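Why run this: before we spend reagent on co-expression, it is cheaper to look at a predicted model of the complex and decide which construct boundaries make sense. The entries below are exactly what would go into the expression plan.
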Amino acid sequence: MGILKIEDLQVYYGRSHALFDLNVEVAAGSIVVMLGANGAGKSTTFKTISGLLKPKEGRIEFLGKSIHHLPPHKIVKLGIAQAPEGRQLFLNLTVRDNLRAGQYDLIDKVEMKKDWDQVIGWFPILGERLNQQAGTLSGGEQQMLAISRAFLSHPTLLLLDEPSLGLSPLLVQNIFGIISKINKKTGLTIFLAEQNVMVALSIADRGYVLKLGRVALEGESRVLLESKTILQSYLGVS
Amino acid sequence: MLIQLITGGLAIGSVYALIALALVLIYKGSRLLNLAQGELVTIAAYFSLAILTQARLPYLAGLVPAVILAGVFALIVERIVIRPVVSSEEWSILLATWGVSITIRGLIGLIWGHEPRPLPSPFTGQHLHWGAYALSAQEMVIIVTSLFMLLIFYLFFKGTKAGLAMQVVADNQMGASLCGISVGRINALTWMISGMVAAVAGITISPIFFLQVEMGFELLLSAFSAAVLGGFGSIVGAIIGGYLLGIIQAVTGGYMPEAIKSSVPFALLILVLVIRPTGLFGKAGVEKK
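The model came back. Tokens follow.
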């Protein structure tokens, strides 16, 4: 059962046509990855899902409800959280306040505490740096903070835009391991955008390959992994 | 004599601090310099005049409804004038606030006339005796009420969810929306708070300075200098800048020709921009659009 359905989406940046006839489905409880080179349209897709961009045509449905015309804060309330391109952290605020901001909409204190403890358990370094300004964190720590902040809004669908960007291979393995763990332990549906093909496909159930704003290839990650040469031709030099 | 200069300076400094705070809050939240901020001070003072003369309430009791009314008024201005143009170019929004300023001044002149009016206060002419000194009671009221207002603001800003939302929106609007915060609603709240903070300044200073249509403009310029002195964009800086400017102005006025006094904010502004443009607490940096 698809909890997120993107149908025939057309998105423009001003007069520039960025996404063409996009059709994507994300099944509940799965990890789906959108692969593509820089400029392929991954972030554009994610921004549109979260309401930061509006499509010219097409629809986006979440849990059966049409969301593409809604403002971003309402989409968060419906259950979609995103760790976006550029992280968009509150750099002048403390780590603690960044995390508290993620929980802004929630009222169930018991659930909030449980989520908080879980997040600190996955990323203990954040627990150590709670009183530090977010801007002083390293790249990897900021990425962990961005993912944590998104997770803390207790979403039904978590969007991660290039979680591996700028991180060392070791940190990438670390974070992807945690992403996979989050999905297995909590059943949270995760949709990620990635340039790092191998790591992403190693944890994903399904993948879409985006090239110049169109879906060029899609399928189960197992199948995609086997056709490495085809993948490379779509993604350029990977 | 110096003690009276300092209390006078702290009093006008309190007014500058509050208005500078109001300016910086709106600036941090939406990168907008509110040219109508002075008029929000003026309209609040006239609201309190209306309440005190019509409702026959005592001065301090009349303060509260006037502050609330001023907050609602600022909220209405934000919704009607600012929100529709929020995605326009910065210059357009700036001009919109200037339009608000002109409109409010026109309305005040129409309703209350252009004659300067005193705001009746039981503290006018009264003095508090502290040792050998006689301190103006109204100035004490200004200082105490302003400190109280700043305290309430601090508790709100640091202690409530809405306060956190304001900090968050000021830091990164995109990040804020992705946390489920309605940036539009927070901007409206910020205007309301700015209106209320400015109101306290206007209502407390009016018994001394007299109400007139143009009173807001000079206060705006002085508050702007105070905010720049503190490092435009820093809340703490705006408040400290306000008090500092007030004291500097009062003390120079005491030892130099009276006429120099009104040029102090501008002289200070030029000095700050030449010597240390980031002010006392500001941060140097390049802003990415």
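Chain A is about 40% helix and 30% strand. The CA atoms of residues 115 and 152 of chain A lie 6 Å apart. Bring this page to Monday's planning discussion.
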